[in-house]
Design a protein that fits this description.
352 residues; alpha+beta; Arc Repressor Mutant, subunit A; 3 domains; 11-stranded mixed beta sheet; two-stranded antiparallel sheet
Length: 352
């Protein structure tokens, strides 16, 4: 078997194109990341809320206010001008939803849930559904996976595991912890508020009836361009755009959006590359341009916002100017880092 090919990384012209494409969003910083995701499919209990219709609300209100007359609907609602079949259907709906029942005295009564429905005008029903949850794998930094709310699945979502994934597992307590989180946490990270419980497989159930509870954890790799913007209060400050590996085209709308707290979800973005990483990136950019290594190493590097200031001796600037390099026009970009997430920076030459 041949060794797996090393993943390609976007070059200077691609990074410049992304920056220009996103300039309208007031970018302050740019990253490129190959997010490693856990695609977790599991059975959960969810609560659906819908409004009571006019007849349901009227019948509940009537039962709640009336003097008991017995369990027979025809006698109990004899003075109502309503079709018998419609009445039976309404009663069946309300009893099935747990809003109406027959009490110990054998008369119709409104349940606690029914009184709550009367107060709110809404009916809450529980059901079991298989849902898909995405978690970003942060094992490179020894961090637990964090829930990730993808706004819309991109066209180019890769479903194959990354070549360097030797072992793959997901701790289901991460999902359970999300379900137990506060409503403010769920709002911040866009976790579905209707999910109330995780339903794991049952040890005493046969496979024929237990299959819906089987948990699937699939590795997926998603190329994303992250942009930190100068957002107004209450607006997202970090946006993620899916990138297609072929042609490096960006999805037009962000699939990820964060306000505060994105550093917890994506700690790789929050970690600034070391000075040595920036120097290695500068050296890698210089090598194919035949710049003398001694002069390249003599440059002093300074990181400022989205720029990498290269304090260079005159000979280097003269060489790049003679070659009509993009760096002279401040159109050259590079990536720094060695993991799945790399920081982009615009080269800016400063005479030393």
């Amino acid at each position: 078997m041949s060794a797996a090919l090393a993943p390609s990384w976007p070059g200077s012209r691609v990074l410049l194109g992304w920056w220009r494409e996103l300039i309208g969003r007031q970018p302050q910083q740019l990253w490129f990341s190959r997010l490693l995701l856990h695609r977790v499919e599991s059975l959960v209990r969810v609560t659906h809320t819908r409004s009571l219709d006019l007849w349901q609300r009227a019948l509940l209100r009537l039962v709640h206010a009336r003097i008991p007359r017995g369990p027979d609907p025809e006698n109990y609602f004899a003075d109502l001008q309503i079709d018998g079949q419609v009445l039976s259907q309404l009663i069946h709906q309300l009893t099935a939803a747990g809003l109406l029942h027959m009490n110990g005295a054998g008369t119709w009564d409104v349940t606690t849930a029914g009184r709550h429905a009367l107060e709110t005008g809404a009916l809450a029903t529980c059901s079991e559904e298989r849902r898909t949850f995405y978690f970003v794998d942060n094992s490179e930094l020894q961090c637990t996976p964090h829930f990730l709310s993808l706004r819309r699945l991109p066209r180019a979502l890769a479903s194959a595991p990354a070549p360097d994934v030797a072992t793959w597992s997901f701790d289901l307590t991460c999902l359970e912890a999300c379900i137990r989180q506060t409503s403010s946490w769920k709002t911040r990270y866009h976790f579905p508020a209707d999910v109330e419980a995780f339903l794991p497989p049952l040890s005493n159930e046969p496979p024929a009836t237990n299959w819906r509870r089987v948990v699937l954890d699939s590795p997926e790799q998603l190329p994303v361009v992250f942009l930190r913007a100068a957002g107004s209060p209450g607006e997202p400050t970090l946006l993620g755009f899916a990138a297609r590996a072929e042609g490096w085209e960006l999805e037009p709308e962000p699939i990820l959006a964060f306000g505060e707290g994105w550093e917890e979800v994506l700690p790789n973005l929050a970690a600034e590359p070391s000075p040595q990483a920036w120097r290695e990136a500068w050296q890698a950019w210089s090598a194919p341009r035949n710049l003398p290594l001694a002069e390249v190493e003599a440059c002093r590097l300074e990181r400022v916002d989205h720029r990498l200031l290269v304090h260079a001796p005159p000979p280097i600037i003269d060489r790049l100017r003679a070659a009509r390099s993009d760096a002279v026009k401040q159109e050259a970009w590079l990536l720094a880092g060695s993991d799945r997430t790399r920081t982009a920076a615009q080269l800016e030459l400063v005479p030393s």
